[in-house]
C-alpha cells in the first residue's frame, strides 16, 4: 500500500498528468457550453424561424396575387375596350387602321416593366389570325413559328377558347422562334388566357415573364418556389421542373401551413384572389444561422468560463512554476553554449523542438521578407480598385507620406503579333512590365510597377519633395523604345496629376483610366497627360440614313462611300476618340450586313475570310478606316447589283399565284413564306420591279376580274364579291368605287345602257 501511494504521487506530479488534467477541465467546460447552446437552440429558435418564413411567404403571396389581379384587370380592359369590340364585330374582315391603333396600344402597355409581360396576343379563332406587338400574322404561323411550344399549339388554343372559363393561367414553358437555320429562344413564359365565356371566337393571350416576376417577388431565402393552380396543377417552379412537387397534395388541406420533410421545411399558402397555392422550401441547415440570438446567453456563459479558466490557470501556474522555469532556462540556452542534457527526457525533447522551430522561424522570416514586394502590389491593387479584403491583417507599411503619380500603359496587340511572333501575350506583357519597372527605378528607387489587367500595366511613382524628375522626358524616352515595335503593339500612356494624399489613390486611378480612353487615332505610341473630353457621338442623320440605304440598295458604291468618308472627316476634324471611330464603324458595318441580309444576300466573307470586326481592330488612322469601308461598301454594292441582275423569279411567281388564286385570301406574308424570304424584302422588290405596291396590284387585278363578271355574267354583286376574294360585300363595294370611281351597281347599269343604245 505505501508503495502504491508513492507511485501515485510521482504520477500525479508529472507534467503529463497535470497537462492532461488541465485539458480535461477545459474540454469539460466546452462540452457543457455546447450542450447548453444546443438545448436552447432546439427549444426556442425553431418556432421563431417558422413564423418568420411564414410571414415572408405571406408577403410574396400578396404580391403575386396583386400582380395576377392587375394582369386580369388589364386583360379584361383590353378585351372590352372600343377597339377590340369593333375588331370582334368586323372579324374576319381586317381593318388595318384599327389594327395599327391596337398595336400601338399594346406596345405602350408592354413598355411598363412592372407588369412583367413579354407580349399580348389577340387571337381570332374564326379568321385564324392574331394581333400582337410586332404586327399581325396567321394563327398557324404565330404558334408554329414565332412562339412555338409543343404544348401550346394552335389546336390547343382553339380548344381552350371553347372551354367555359374567362381567366386561366397555364404552366410555365419555353417558347422558341423557328429560324431558317436554328431556333431562337424567346424565353420562359407563363401563358394567361382572358376571354368571354359566351364568345368562343376571340381571346387575349398574355405571355407573362415568370422568371423576372419571380426574381422581383420571391420570398427571401427560398431554395425552391412552386405555384399550383386552383386544380392543384403546377404552373411555375423556380427550379424549372414544374412536374416536381415538394409536398403531397393531401397534406395541404388548410389555407396555410408548413411541413418538415427530409432536410427542409416546406411552407404553403393559398391565395385569396386566385385560389392558387404557393409553396416555398427552406433548407434546415439555414436554421443554424439563427444562433446569433444566443448572444446574451453566450456572453453569460463566456464570463463564467473565463472566471473559471483564470482561476484554473492561476492554480496550475503555481503548481507548474518549477518545470516552466526549467523550460525557460532551456530556451535561453538555445543560441548559447550547449547545456548539459537534462535527466527529464521531456525537457530534452522540448529543447530539440524549440531549436527546430527557431530555425524554421528564420527561414519563414527570410521568405516573407522576399515576398513583401508581392504583398505590397496586392495591397496597392486593392486600394486602387477599392477592394476591401484581408489586407488589413497584413502588416506591411504603405508609402503615404510622399507625393506620387500614376502612369498607365494600355496595350493593344496587333494582328502581326499573333501571326508572326512566337511569344505568348502574357509573356510579352511580363517583359514589357519588367522593362518599365527597370526604366523608372533607375530614377525613382521606390517606384512600383505591376500588371492590373490582361492588357494594362500601372506604375506608381513616389517623388521625393525637392527632387528633380522630368516625367515628360522619361515618358518620351519610353515612347521611342515602344515605337520600334509599332508593327506588333500599339501603346497608350496616360498620367494622373501629382497627388499628395494616399486616400486619393482610387480617384487618381479612375482619372488615368479615363485619360487612356481619350486616345485619338494615330499609328504610334501616344502620351496623354491632360483631360480632353470626347465630342458628342456621331451617327447618320435621318436624311443621310435614307440616302445611304437607297444608294447601297441600288448598288451605287460611290455615293455611299462619299457619305461615310464625309462623316469620317468630320470626326477627325472634331478630334473624335479612337473608340468613337470604332463604334461608328461597327454601326455602319452592321447596317450594311442588315441591308444585305434583308435582301436575301449572303454576307459571309464579304472582305475575305477575316471578319470585318477583326479588320476594324486593325484600323489606327482615318485613312485606314476610309480604305476598309471603301472595300466593304464596294463589295456590298457589287453583291446588290449581282442580285438585281438575276432572273425575276419572285415577280413571276407572285403574279402567277395571284392570277390563279385571286378568289382566296392572299397576303404579303403568305407570298414571302412560300418564297422563303422576308415580307419587307418582297414588298420592296415587287414595287421596284413592277412600279406598284403588292396590295395595289392584288386589288387592281381583282377589280379587273369583277368588271368582267359585271359585264358578261348575271351574277349578283354578293356572288362576284366572294369570287374575287371579298367575303364582306361592303368592303368589295368600297374598293370597287376606289378603283373605278363608281359603285359596281352603277357600273353594271352603265354597261347595260351602252348595250341597249348600240345598233
UniProtKB/TrEMBL annotation:
Domain HTH araC/xylS-type span(s) in chain numbering: 652-750
SUPFAM superfamilies with a match to the protein in the record: Homeodomain-like
InterPro entries in UniProt: Homeodomain-like_sf, HTH_AraC, HTH_AraC-typ_CS, Tscrpt_reg_AraC-type_HTH
Membrane-traversing stretches: 20-41, 296-318
Key word Phosphoprotein present: no
GO molecular function: DNA-binding transcription factor activity; sequence-specific DNA binding
Keyword annotations from UniProtKB, A to Z: DNA-binding, Membrane, Transcription, Transcription regulation, Transmembrane, Transmembrane helix
Protein name: HTH araC/xylS-type domain-containing protein
PROSITE patterns in alphabetical order: HTH_ARAC_FAMILY_1, HTH_ARAC_FAMILY_2
Amino acid at each position: 500500500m505505501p508503495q502504491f501511494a508513492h507511485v501515485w504521487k510521482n504520477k500525479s506530479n508529472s507534467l503529463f498528468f497535470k497537462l492532461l488534467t488541465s485539458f480535461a477541465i477545459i474540454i469539460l467546460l466546452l462540452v457543457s457550453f455546447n450542450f447548453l447552446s444546443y438545448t436552447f437552440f432546439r427549444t426556442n429558435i425553431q418556432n421563431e424561424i417558422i413564423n418568420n418564413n411564414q410571414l415572408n411567404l405571406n408577403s410574396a403571396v400578396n404580391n403575386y396575387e396583386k400582380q395576377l389581379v392587375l394582369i386580369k384587370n388589364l386583360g379584361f380592359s383590353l378585351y372590352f375596350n372600343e377597339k377590340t369590340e369593333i375588331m370582334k364585330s368586323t372579324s374576319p374582315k381586317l381593318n388595318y387602321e384599327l389594327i395599327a391603333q391596337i398595336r400601338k396600344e399594346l406596345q405602350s402597355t408592354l413598355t411598363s416593366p412592372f407588369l412583367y409581360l413579354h407580349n399580348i396576343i389577340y387571337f381570332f379563332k374564326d379568321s385564324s389570325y392574331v394581333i400582337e406587338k410586332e404586327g399581325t400574322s396567321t394563327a398557324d404561323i404565330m404558334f408554329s413559328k414565332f412562339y412555338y411550344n409543343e404544348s401550346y399549339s394552335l389546336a390547343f388554343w382553339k380548344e381552350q377558347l371553347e372551354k367555359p372559363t374567362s381567366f386561366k393561367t397555364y404552366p410555365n414553358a419555353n417558347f422558341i422562334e423557328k429560324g431558317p437555320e436554328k431556333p431562337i429562344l424567346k424565353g420562359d413564359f407563363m401563358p394567361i388566357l382572358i376571354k368571354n365565356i359566351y364568345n368562343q371566337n376571340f381571346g387575349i393571350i398574355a405571355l407573362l415573364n415568370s422568371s423576372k416576376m419571380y426574381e422581383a417577388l420571391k420570398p427571401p431565402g427560398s431554395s425552391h418556389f412552386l405555384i399550383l393552380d386552383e386544380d392543384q396543377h403546377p404552373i411555375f417552379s423556380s427550379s424549372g421542373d414544374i412536374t416536381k412537387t415538394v409536398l403531397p397534395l393531401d397534406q395541404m388541406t388548410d389555407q396555410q401551413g408548413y411541413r418538415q420533410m427530409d432536410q427542409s421545411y416546406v411552407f404553403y399558402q393559398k391565395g385569396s384572389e386566385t385560389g392558387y397555392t404557393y409553396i416555398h422550401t427552406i433548407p434546415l441547415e439555414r436554421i443554424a444561422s439563427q444562433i446569433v440570438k444566443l448572444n446574451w446567453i453566450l456572453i453569460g456563459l463566456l464570463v463564467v468560463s473565463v472566471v473559471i479558466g483564470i482561476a484554473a490557470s492561476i492554480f496550475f501556474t503555481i503548481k507548474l512554476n518549477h518545470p516552466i522555469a526549467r523550460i525557460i532556462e532551456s530556451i535561453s540556452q538555445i543560441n548559447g553554449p550547449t547545456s548539459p542534457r537534462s535527466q527529464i527526457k521531456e525537457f530534452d525533447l522540448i529543447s530539440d523542438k524549440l531549436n527546430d522551430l527557431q530555425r524554421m522561424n528564420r527561414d519563414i522570416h527570410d521568405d516573407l521578407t522576399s515576398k513583401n514586394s508581392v504583398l505590397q502590389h496586392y495591397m496597392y491593387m486593392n486600394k486602387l480598385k477599392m477592394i476591401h479584403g484581408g489586407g488589413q491583417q497584413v502588416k506591411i507599411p504603405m508609402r503615404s507620406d510622399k507625393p506620387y503619380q500614376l502612369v498607365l500603359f494600355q496595350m493593344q496587340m496587333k494582328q502581326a503579333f499573333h501571326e508572326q511572333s512566337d511569344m505568348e501575350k502574357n509573356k510579352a506583357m511580363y517583359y514589357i512590365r519588367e522593362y518599365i519597372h527597370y526604366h523608372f527605378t533607375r530614377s525613382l528607387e521606390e517606384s512600383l510597377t505591376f500588371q492590373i489587367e490582361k492588357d494594362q500595366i500601372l506604375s506608381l511613382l513616389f517623388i521625393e519633395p525637392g527632387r528633380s524628375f522630368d516625367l515628360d522626358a522619361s515618358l518620351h524616352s519610353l515612347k521611342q523604345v515602344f515605337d520600334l515595335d509599332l508593327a506588333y503593339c500599339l501603346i497608350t500612356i496616360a498620367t494622373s496629376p501629382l497627388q499628395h494624399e494616399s486616400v486619393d489613390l482610387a480617384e487618381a486611378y479612375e482619372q488615368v483610366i479615363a485619360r487612356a480612353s481619350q486616345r485619338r487615332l494615330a499609328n504610334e505610341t501616344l502620351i496623354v497627360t491632360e483631360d480632353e473630353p470626347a465630342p458628342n457621338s456621331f451617327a447618320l442623320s435621318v436624311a443621310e440614313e435614307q440616302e445611304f440605304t437607297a444608294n447601297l440598295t441600288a448598288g451605287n458604291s460611290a455615293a455611299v462611300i462619299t457619305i461615310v468618308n464625309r462623316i469620317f472627316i468630320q470626326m477627325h476634324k472634331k478630334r473624335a476618340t479612337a473608340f468613337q471611330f470604332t463604334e461608328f464603324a461597327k454601326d455602319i458595318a452592321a447596317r450594311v450586313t442588315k441591308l444585305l441580309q434583308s435582301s436575301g444576300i449572303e454576307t459571309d466573307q464579304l472582305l475575305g475570310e477575316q471578319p470585318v470586326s477583326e479588320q476594324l481592330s486593325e484600323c489606327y488612322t482615318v485613312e485606314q478606316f476610309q480604305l476598309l469601308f471603301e472595300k466593304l461598301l464596294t463589295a456590298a454594292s457589287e453583291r446588290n447589283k449581282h442580285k438585281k441582275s438575276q432572273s425575276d423569279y419572285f415577280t413571276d411567281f407572285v403574279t402567277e399565284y395571284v392570277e390563279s388564286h385571286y378568289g382566296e385570301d392572299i397576303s404579303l406574308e403568305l407570298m414571302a413564306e412560300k418564297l422563303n424570304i422576308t415580307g419587307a424584302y418582297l414588298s420592296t422588290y415587287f414595287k421596284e420591279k413592277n412600279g406598284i405596291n403588292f396590295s395595289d396590284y392584288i386589288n387592281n387585278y381583282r377589280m379587273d376580274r369583277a368588271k368582267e363578271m359585271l359585264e358578261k355574267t348575271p351574277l349578283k354583286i354578293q356572288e362576284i364579291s366572294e369570287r374575287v376574294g371579298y367575303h364582306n360585300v361592303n368592303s368589295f363595294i368600297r374598293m370597287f368605287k376606289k378603283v373605278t370611281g363608281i359603285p359596281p351597281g352603277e357600273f353594271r347599269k352603265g354597261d347595260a345602257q351602252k348595250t341597249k343604245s348600240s345598233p
